[in-house]
Write a structure and sequence with these properties.
Length: about 140
C-alpha cells in the first residue's frame, strides 16, 4: 500500500522532477537515468506524503544529492555545453550548485525560505545569504 502511494506520488511529480534535474544542470540525455536514481533514493527513504509541497521538497533534495554524486563521478567537464542551452538554463549554469538549488526552490518553485532551510538542513539566514549571492551571479551572467 505504501509502495503504491509512493509510485503514484512519484508519477504525478515526474514532470517537476525532470524540470528540477534540468535546472540543476543535468543534460537532456542524462535526465531519465538521474530520475531513476532519485526514485531509488525514494525507495530507500520512504518519505511521508502528508503534503504535496513537502514531497516536492523531498524530491528536490534527492535530485540535488543525485546531481552532486553524478558530477563527482563524471567530473566537471561541461564548458562547451552551456553554449547550446536556452538563456535561462545557461544563466543558471553559471551559478554554483549549492546556490542554484536555493535560487530554483525560491524563485522558480516559490517555496518560502523557512521550508527551504528545513529541507536542506540549513538556517534561514544561510538560505537567505545563498539566495542573495545567487541573484547577484544571475545578474552578472545576464
Amino acid at each position: 500500500m505504501v509502495l503504491e502511494r509512493l509510485i503514484e506520488a512519484f508519477d504525478s511529480e515526474l514532470d517537476y522532477l525532470f524540470a528540477s534535474l534540468r535546472r540543476l544542470g543535468a543534460h537532456p540525455e542524462e535526465i531519465e537515468d538521474l530520475a531513476h536514481q532519485v526514485f531509488l533514493g525514494l525507495l530507500r527513504t520512504r518519505p511521508r506524503f502528508s503534503e504535496r509541497g513537502s514531497f516536492r521538497l523531498q524530491l528536490f533534495g534527492l535530485a540535488l544529492r543525485v546531481i552532486v554524486r553524478h558530477r563527482r563521478r563524471i567530473g566537471r567537464n561541461r564548458g562547451a555545453a552551456a553554449e547550446s542551452l536556452p538563456l535561462s538554463l545557461a544563466t543558471l549554469d553559471r551559478v554554483p550548485l549549492k546556490r542554484r538549488a536555493v535560487l530554483v526552490l525560491h524563485e522558480l518553485d516559490r517555496f518560502p525560505l523557512t521550508k527551504i532551510a528545513a529541507s536542506l538542513s540549513m538556517t534561514r539566514l544561510g538560505v537567505a545569504l545563498r539566495l542573495r549571492k545567487a541573484r547577484r551571479e544571475v545578474e552578472a551572467a545576464i
